[in-house]
Amino acid sequence: MDNLITNIRIGASHEPPPHGPWSRVVLESTIPLTPVIAGGGAEGGGIANAGAFAVRVPGVRLNMPDCIIPVHDGLVATVSASSRGELTLLEILLEHAAPVSIRLDEGMPYQLEIRFDSRGAYSVLKDRTLAIDPGHGGRDAGGRGPVNLVEKGVTLNLAEYLRRLCSSLSIPHYLTRDSDVAMPLRSRVTRALARSADAIISIHTGIERNRDIRGTRVQYANPNGREMAGFVLVEIARKLNLPDRGVSSVETSAGRNPFARLHVPAIEVEFVTLSNPVDEGLVRSSTFMHRAALAILNGIKNYYWHSAGD
Fold it and tell me: What tens digit of pLDDT does each residue of 234-258 get?
């Protein structure tokens, strides 16, 4: 039997301990593996540094082409694997430093599991309250997709996915609405101020007359939200592989934007363009909605790390 890496599995859990939060990479092979840490180290009490965590696995080669696997789960950015003769090189690109553990399991297939504790990645949000604002509601249905999916329901659905993520990661948060009720814009701002929100994330979808237009746009509702909008757009575009429609300012009539004078970031996330048939189909998938919520949360996380000088 050839000495082969037969599969590379990527996984993440965003549940509370002991089930998470963690990110892991699993190599499956035809023989027992003897990994060697080649750089980025597990030194210092098993802490992997931010950047490249490199592992050399001698005596075995990939049963697949060399590859770069995009992950973007909040801790692991990408996983690269390549063969050099009877040697496999693995490079895991980490966005933050993290405790790492390595486990070898014998059997068929043999497994090498590299697991990173991702609690530290989200620690920057532990003392920040996020106001999650599902756009529209009640008689204000918002836009409508080609197959009659209504924006107010889509935004509430995504807000619920985001709420679950925040709850599992112990991130303070609340929803401005959790049912199909009308909520005037000024009432949303009043609620945010009453709960001492550190950021306001309004969930919307794009609506265009031209149904060929699709993708993600993030708008900032006040100057403090401009930089956060950029971080969120980057994460959504690369996590969901959607067209990037850019960052722009919320277009409102003069004096009608109650977010404008707030001292905390306020953004509107049009995570898909609902008027496009492809985008409307995507939001019917629970997997897609979870990934969209995770991308938004990771964009916010990255903004605060950047603001902290990490």
Answer: 999 999 999 999 999 987 644 577 8
pTM, 2 dp:
0.93
CA distance linking residue 53 with residue 43, whole number of Å: 11
Q: Are 24 and 116 in contact (CB under 8 A)?
A: yes
55, β-bridge pairs = 37, 90
Residues 105 and 85 in one domain: yes
Burial of 168 (0-12, 13-18, 19+ CB in 10 A): middle
Residues 128-150, mean pLDDT to the nearest whole number: 96
Computed over every residue of the chain, the mean pLDDT equals: 93
Segment 23-48, tens digit of pLDDT: 999 999 999 999 998 755 544 348 99
| CA-wise closest residue to 246 among 225, 260, 232 | 232
- Of 242, 273, 271, 274, the closest CA to residue 149 belongs to 274
Where residue 291 sits, what CATH number does that domain have? 3.40.630.40
Give the number of domains in the chain: 2
Q: Which domain holds residue 278?
A: 126-307
Write down which residue in 63, 86, 120 finishes a domain.
120
Q: Are residues 84 and 186 in the same domain?
A: no
Q: Where are the beta strands (DSSP E) in 14-75?
A: 22-29, 36-39, 47-48, 51-58, 61-62, 67-70
Do 103 and 188 reside in the same domain of the chain? no
Question: What tokens does 181 get?
Answer: 């009720």
Q: How many CA atoms lie within 13 A of 129 on its CB side?
A: 11
pLDDT in tens, 16-26: 888 889 999 99
Question: Do both 134 and 278 map to the same domain?
Answer: yes
Judgement on whether residues 61 and 175 belong to the same structural domain of the protein? no
